[in-house]
Amino acid sequence: MTTSDPHGHHDWHSQQYVEAWIASATARDPERRTILRRVASLIPREPDAAIRVLDIGAGYGALSAQVLERFPQAQLVCQDFSEPMFTQARERLSWASERVSFVPCDLSDPTWNQALTGSFDAVVSGIAIHNVRYPERIRGIYAEIFDVVAPGGCFLNYDLIFVSAPTAAQAYDQTAQLADWIRGESSDATRSAAVATAAQTSHQHAAITLEEQLRWLREGGFRDVECFWKEGRSAIIGGFRPS
Known about the structure:
Blueprint: H1 15-26, H2 29-41, E1 52-56, H3 62-70, E2 75-80, H4 83-92, E3 100-104, E4 120-126, H5 135-146, E5 149-160, H6 166-177, H7 179-182, H8 188-204, H9 210-219, E6 223-231, E7 234-240
Parallel strand pairs: 1-2, 1-4, 2-3, 4-5
Antiparallel strand pairs: 5-7, 6-7
Helix pairs in contact: 2-3, 5-9, 6-8
């Protein structure tokens, strides 16, 4: 990926853009924290296990923080290609000290995993891989992730999923429109923004369905592939490498 986003939606190499994006994203952190903790909880290891974890597209470290909290003995590697994101992650994860390291590499390059050393008991990702945009590249990434998962390890991906059925998509759009009403906090402006976001999400992910992604995981070598959680256009999917 020679530009920050092949579709021009983001500029991950811009310090100013990343700081503005994080300011918006962190406002949703309390809402997302439960989902990120769910990802960490799905790693089938005891809390005191000295595991090695890779966070794909770690960004400013929101998911990494939950994994490190869940597993106090874990060593975690943050992967991203945005140095401005790494700057933020280093600051936000400084409390974990030497337990965290950072590897810059670009998922659009099929050799990205060669920048890593060793294998991982778990690979996780949170709202990141969809930014690659191209379905065949994402399919390749799943197979490349399998190569760095240790036998008996897992891959857990919390990301956006496209809904292919028109009626289901309409239902999700309606839910997005009424999200504040469902929470008892009605706001016309917020509802309009939610509808616009839902429509944009559909456009960005028109080629990738949940069924396709689960199939790609199996084709990449993973077994016991599951959708562990789903709400609207977000899901946690993953699988395991045989021992």
